[in-house]
Amino acid sequence: MLSTEDQISILVHLSKADKVIAEEEYRLIIHVAEGLGMNSDDAARIINDPNPIPKLNDLPPDEKFEYLLNVVRLMKADGKIHQKEVSFCEKLAFRLGYKPGVISELSAYIYRDPDINTNRSYLRSIVDQHLIPMNEQKD
């Protein structure tokens, strides 16, 4: 299990993929951090100085799923999807043990607004179809 700081750091790295943290991205990172029990001052500190991205492929499936949902939501937060953000998400998906195509499929069902949710079991079925078999995974 990753620490809350590591979880927020992953989102920060994604938001900085296009060199700018948009206001919507900043607010979403704070929202996710607070949902994980972190105060906004600590989240702001991490936004300014994120941890390196940790090893991800050994995480439990439920955590991997949550990270994918959060990174896709963050990618869409400012209403602009940059190729660098897509590439970051695809690399992160691969490090989590998924085929990069999972990002484009999830993107069709995940909305910018964190209060609008698609059926989680449906999203999970999409994610599970993109799992790379354990014997083919590398970190």
Q: If you had to describe this structure to a student in words, what would you say it looks like?
A:
The chain is mainly α. The chain has one domain (4-133): TerB-like, CATH 1.10.3680. The chain is built from 7 helices and no strands. The chain has helices at residues 4-15, 23-35, 40-48, 61-76, 83-96, 101-107, 120-129. Helix 2 packs antiparallel against helix 4 (61-76) and helix 5 (83-96) crosses helix 6 (101-107). The radius of gyration is 14 Å and the shape is globular. The mean pLDDT is 86.
What's the count of strands?
0
What structural category arises from helix and sheet content? Answer: mainly alpha
User: What share of the residues lie within helices?
Assistant: 55-70%
CA radius of gyration: 14 Å
Low-confidence stretches: none
The description of the largest β-sheet is: none
What can be said about this structure in brief?
This protein has 139 residues and is mostly helical. It has helices spanning 4-15, 23-35, 40-48, 61-76, 83-96, 101-107, 120-129. It has one domain (4-133): TerB-like (Orthogonal Bundle), CATH 1.10.3680.
Main attributes of the structure:
single chain, 139 residues, mainly alpha, TerB-like
Secondary-structure topology with pairs:
Elements: H1 4-15, H2 23-35, H3 40-48, H4 61-76, H5 83-96, H6 101-107, H7 120-129
